[in-house]
Amino acid sequence: xxxxxxxxxxxxxxxxxxxxxxxxxxxxxxxxxxxxxxxxxxxxxxxxxxxxxxxxxxxxxxxxxxxxxxxxxxxxxxxxxxxxxxxxxxxxxxxxxxxxxxxxxxxxxxxxxxxxxxxxxxxxxxxxxxxxxxxxxxxxxxxxxxxxxxxxxxxxxxxxxxxxxxxxxxxxxxxxxxxxxx
Length: 182
Hints:
With 182 residues, the protein is an alpha+beta fold. The chain has one domain: Aminopeptidase (3-Layer(aba) Sandwich), CATH 3.40.630. 29% of the residues lie in helices and 36% in strands. The protein contains six helices and eight strands; from the N terminus they run H-E-E-H-H-E-E-E-H-E-H-E-E-H. It has helices at residues 3-8, 26-31, 52-60, 108-122, 137-146, 175-181; strands spanning 11-13, 16-20, 65-72, 75-86, 91-99, 127-133, 149-159, 165-174. The protein has an eight-stranded mixed beta sheet. The longest helix is centred in the middle third of the chain and has 15 residues, at 108-122. It is globular and about 45 Å long. The two termini are 27 Å apart.
């Protein structure tokens, strides 16, 4: 198995199963993405109503985004994954996370992120990057809790689905820092 195949292989932990998002997950994901979710205002794309299919197609067709569908006790809870995988320089980004509203604040994300970080380290990646909309305080706090270090802000870096031009905060975790925490 290649390094990338190993990175993207399913992940299992007690009560959790993560597998790469495929076309077969379309309706499952649609069902957990309510149109009135306030989080859409700070997400780069909206996975709801008429925006769902184009956004889902964009995810499937983006070779730089490898999301996992997240199941807890067999129930779909959301997705998160790897972006901008750069094996030559041993770094990747972890993100693209969406959790259904009922899963937020339950500690599920704090169980998922270490699994993904652990997988990246098992595959010899030495830098894991997080890129977060400056308005997304919840995500900033979550990665800080993991031990990620704030490195700076890319000003006016991305235009979201609403037309908002976002400032993107960069955080990272290095392999040796993560292992020192264990």
